[in-house]
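Consider the subject:
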Amino acid sequence: MSKLTIDDLRRILVDCAGEDEAAELGADALDTEFDDLGYDSLALMETAARIHQELGVLIPDEQVAELRTPRQVLDLVNGAAVETA
């Protein structure tokens, strides 16, 4: 399983939520809350489903609701990737 990068996360968010929202997602936005970046809960649920498809990391719905920033997603997914490797 490969590591999820900010570029991977941006690509997945673009696919799930559209280009407009993802334009602001860069390394400087890692600690910016998804609400402030314009992402809603549906986009995050779709993102979690795509991460499961592509990387095999399952993020339960309850946990998706607790994810507030891109860094939290990266840390969660990459931590799970290390545990299963």
Remarks:
- The mean pLDDT is 87.
